[in-house]
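Collaborator request, handled under Task 6.
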Amino acid sequence: MNPQHLLTFSVVARLKSITLAAKQLNIGQPAVSGQLKLLQTFVGEPLYERKGHQIELTGAGIGLLEYADKIDCCYTQALEYVHSLQKISTGILRIGATMTIASYYLPKFLVELQTRHKGVQVFMKTLDTSETLRNLYSLDLGFIEGALTDFELSSNYQVIPWQKDEIVMILPENHTLATKYSDYIPVQVFNQYQVIWREPGSGARQVVEQALTEAGMSIDVHIEVTGVSAVKESVRAGLGIGFSSVMALKNESKGLVSRRIGTQEGLNWQLNIIAPKATLQSRATQAFLGLCVQQ
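Structure tokens returned to the collaborator:
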């Protein structure tokens, strides 16, 4: 059974005319008659009879129309959905982002997306860099910190360099180091003070560890917490010194200060977007990606 024949049958039954149905479907009358003939042949009995210029369904036709109308309704709804997708007034966007990016970078872009395309549903998972890379199959976009280390990216994905960021030292405002160093702090302080470390999967931690390795230093980890908020609160409580993206302290004004690490240029890193190749991106993905890269 050809579904198109059922759709045609539904239109003919509604208009009670092959001529009118042909005009609505924008096809010739012979094509409509041919589809109805093939459908009747498949069913094995008449579905309608002619009465003057109109047609009247038989009992078999009335029974089949119930299912033909359901197909017609589903087809119409599917068409409306596709049109709405083309206007980006619906759809789902699944994002995986590190805590720093999710908290301090993405909110303004999400607000802009919701303002422009109110029907798009956004689901964002807060994952560290390693988890984001491992879960790409279930995401539309991944936002990670630093370079891809020991991870082979599928050929269906691309790395888009995004924002430049800086990792800074977080100190209590009355700390000795804050008083002694007004601009940057040498990396050697990591050997001299208790450090609050981020979890192993943290991109910020990986960048700091790389800087220490390049300086020939090896540090024992005694305190390890998850997330930048935990680092800030631990430092504020006096457990030690910490580090984070400079963005994490952008609106911080109570009890904490920041200093650059290592040199006047500081400890910089690259934030990247992991996206499917353009041909595999949904319209919602394309819209959000466009907002992000524009700025």
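The cover message to the collaborator said: "The CA atoms of residues 13 and 57 lie 7 Å apart. Residues 59-86 form the longest helix (28 residues). Please let us know whether this matches your experimental observations."
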